[in-house]
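Before surveying the methods themselves, let us examine one representative protein, written as a sequence plus integers encoding its fold.
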Amino acid sequence: MRRSNLPAESTRFVGREDEHRDLERMLSEFRVVTVTGVGGVGKSRLARHTAATVEKRYCHGVRLAELATLRDPGLLDHTLLDALGLTDHTSRPPREVLVEQLAERRLLLVLDGFEHLVDACGPLVRELLRRAPGLTVLAAGRRPLRVDGEAVLTLAPMADGDAVRLFTDRAEAAVPGFRAEDPSAVTELCRRLDGIPLALELAAGRLPALTVRQVLHRLDDRFRLLTGGKRGELPRHRTLRTAIGWSHELCTPEERLLWARLSVFAGPFELDAVEYVCACPALPADRVLDVLAELLAQSVVRREDGPAGPRYRMLDTVAAYGAEWLEALGETGRLRRRHRDWHVGLATAYEADWFGARQAEVAACADSALPDLRAALELCLAEPDQAHLAQYLAGTLWFHWVGCGRLAEGRHWLDRALAVESGHDTARLKALWVLAHVAILQGDAVAAVSALHACGEGAARSGDALAAAYTTHRTGCLALISDDMPRAEELLGRALSSYRELGELNSNVLMGQVELAMAKVFLGDLESAVSLCQEVREVCEEHGERWTRAYALYVLAYAAWTRGEHGRARRLLGECVVIDHTFRDLVGLVLAVELLALVTASEGDPAEAAVLQGAAASMWEAVGLPLFGSGNFGAPRALCEARTVELLGLERHRACVAEGRGLTQEATVERALAGRERPAAESEAEAGPEGTPARRPDGRRTAPDTRKPAGSPAGKGGEAAG
């Protein structure tokens, strides 16, 4: 787990010295601290800035969970797991996983924008604090969490001096070389805006077009009474609403329309999405960029740069104002449907691009789009006649659930989508085989069998040959981890034949070929397994596919180990670790670490091998049943453990395993990769003199090293170890 996921501060932190010191002190005295205050007063900025400055107090760092865009309380636990950088492939309740993973960590968890979820957040925080003694929670919202032991810092608007400093700083950013010709006008403007940072930044965003005096005049004359808010509202709430309304009133009709339409986005959005969702006769697509640029200049929209590239976002308060205008225009339903249609199409494009050179980019983009994909799924499920779209979307995102470490959330959406009768066989059957895939990886064989049975019956009834092929494939995968190798070999081979007949080629198909290779390995046919995986490797390299390639390299590394080629096995596994970690695929990562431990022991370093085994054991807790409960998958671990205990002695072996169990995932990856360039020492127990048989992980001898791999089904040969 990375020490921090706090975003870099894009502008200078100005003022708030006293509040900053108070918050630092409170975090040293209390385990839960909540910063409250009116919208736009700077709660989030102060909390994040302070969290960054106290990070060193927490040996496991700081993690930020942004909750403002989350609407479904049922996803709260999933969102926290994601924010914590934790991947869980099991079918256990996510709350159980959270508690287990945090129990031994000293960490600061920042909850930002929780107020609409306070009924769910309060009990969650209470339970986490009770069961994770090293956890501290810093929350930022418009109301307290109301949990025992909570300290509350109510953030007031900025003092006059700080407000002037903030306005001047943002004005200099908006107008390089800015100098206030009339300092008294600046002071008066800051006073009229009640020192609310969001209002000050919106005002500064107007300076390229207006002078300070003009801004003040407009605020005084025309907008003093603008949308003063609901009766009984606090004056500062009215001030903020007035400031946002004032900024809105200064916009052109095109800018106001885009502002309102942008409110349908739940998270960061890209230009292409804006052009599709928000364009209309009054705002042509070729005008969207220019209008968006104006909203950026006015601080209504902000730009964010991340792994997915440049994205745009509106602050929650600003978006809420736009949503009211959209509702007043009577366009909310139509815009939400356009938003849904875009994201259904986006998921379709992502699925196609997953099998290609853009795979890593797709993973990052899908992560960025997740709040909006969730919103699209929610809308599909809210409209009974759109249930087939929910099933289609949940199934199409299989690559995100399976390939990017989001099995638990995928299970959540698939279960919900399949609970509704859609009347569309194709969408339902896809959701069923994807659900089976997810359930298999979670170790939930009962759910997998049920989904596969329903999918098989539905495919036969509707004549859907592709769904039938996927059903056969996943049934073979279930046989593989259940140690029924003859059945796995037969089913996986039959599925691959069906794929070839249907012209189906993608990451799932190639993974089926790797799974067939694994079955052949366990049946003792190493040459055929190597040939199959070498072909997968070549196809992946041709298409730029990396995720499935990692699994093929895992099998090739196994083959290299059996031949005593430890250096090659380590290099192949190092590449596996890098790829699996990049995609957050914990199943692939833990399998690679397990085999790397055996390679390390074979190289003559039993202590490091035991540390890696301990780290793998810790990771399996987030995957599910260790090594799937399979004797075949467990053979490398059993052999490695026997060797290291013999060489280290039981007491030292236990100490090394305990050290590994204490490693974070990030530290495990660093440790695994640190040895990639180590010399590959031959182990006498592993491989004897040239020409003598090497050992399989179950202790049996393999054929001598002189053999060559058999040709692949496509007629291609391959190297013995890749």
Observations:
- The longest helix spans residues 359-382.
- Confidence is low (pLDDT under 50) at residues 221-237, 679-722.
- Strands lie at 32-36, 62-66, 107-112, 135-140, 150-154, 302-306, 309-313.
- The CA atoms of residues 528 and 710 lie 6 Å apart.
